[in-house]
Amino acid sequence: MDINRTKIIACATVIEEMLPLLPKGMAYEVLDFGLHLSPPNLREKLQAAVNASSPRYDTLLLGYGLCSMAVIGLKANGCRLVIPRTDDCIGIFLGSQAAYSEQVRQEAGTYYLTKGWIEVADTPFDEYERLVAQYGVERANRIMSVMLKNYKRLVYIDTGHQDNAGYVEIARRTAEKFNLRFEEVRGSNALIVKMLKGEWDDDFLVVEAGQTVSYLDFKLVQPKIEANSIPAASASATEKE
Questions:
Q1: How far apart are CA 84 and CA 54, in angstroms?
Q2: Are strands 110-113 and 153-158 parallel, antiparallel or unpaired?
Q3: Distance (Å, whole) CA 24 – CA 87
Q4: CA triplet 18, 74, 240: central angle to 5 degrees?
């Protein structure tokens, strides 16, 4: 894998975890986190980013999981796509879909927060303040009760940031405010590291140029793809685009 012919396309929360690990000079593009609210819109923006990038790059690493089926139907027009085999970004932050599935097994009704998600401020908990301003406290509380009726636990994923303590406290207070059980779980950058090193094993879907991402391919394990390792990661990556 040639660094100069490889580019990352990721949402704002995922790129924050990737930046400290990026090889020097690897290009990246950040898409707005709010696109997750509309999977068809996210798919459209992803496809546009792929199409615009393919003349210059051979491989595009997508910092997205299945993400409400948003990646299904993407066409690898003129380049290879590499996508983590996770249901969504949570699996990326936890290091694997297996780790994510274990958390779901423990408590399916879980809302997850990370430093990046808190900074983006686009969660149901942030929506509460807007609801209060628009409808008042009583009605806002009723709306939130409906929105969170299936949730019992709030998990903060510690992805290893040095300034983590303040974000943990925000998550803890949020859990108390909305009567959710709070837990802190250690995250892992294992999936990101493998992706950036070109170690695309069964944890990744590799879509070759000219192919289309399908749900069946995403869920079925394919033969391992051998990829050349790239140089050690550096924190001095610079954004190109």
A1: 19
A2: parallel
A3: 29
A4: 40
**Is 50 exceeded by the pLDDT of residue 87?**
yes
Give me 209's structure tokens: 């140029």
Q: Which of 14, 50, 28 is nearest to 239 (CA)?
A: 28
Q: Residue written as tokens 């396309």?
A: 9
> What is the distance between the alpha carbons of residues 46 and 51, in angstroms, rounded to a whole number?
9
Average confidence (pLDDT) over 47-63: 97
Bridge partners, residue 27, by sequence: 7
Give 200-231 pLDDT, tens digit per residue: 999 999 999 999 999 998 887 644 444 444 44
Strand order, beta sheet including 59-63: 27-31, 6-11, 59-63, 80-84, 204-207
Per-residue CA distances from 3 to 7, 227, 231 (Å) = 8, 12, 9
pLDDT of 13-27, one tens digit each?
Answer: 999 899 999 999 999
Quote the tokens at residue 237. Answer: 């990556």
Q: Residue 4 has what DSSP assignment?
A: G
R_g over Cα of the chain: 19
Between the CA of residue 143 and those of 129, 137, 150, what are the distances in Å? 12, 10, 13
SS3 of 86, please? coil
Amino acid symbol at 97: Q
For the record, the structure tokens of 38 come out as 């509309």
State which amino acid sits at residue 200.
W
Q: Compute the average pLDDT of residues 97-107.
A: 96
Angstrom distance (rounded) from CA 7 to CA 240: 9
Quote the pLDDT of residue 163. 85
Q: Where are the alpha helices (DSSP H) in the chain?
A: 12-18, 39-53, 89-94, 97-106, 115-120, 124-135, 137-147, 165-177, 190-197, 215-219
Query: Under DSSP, is residue 89 helix (H, G, I), strand (E, B) or coil?
Result: helix
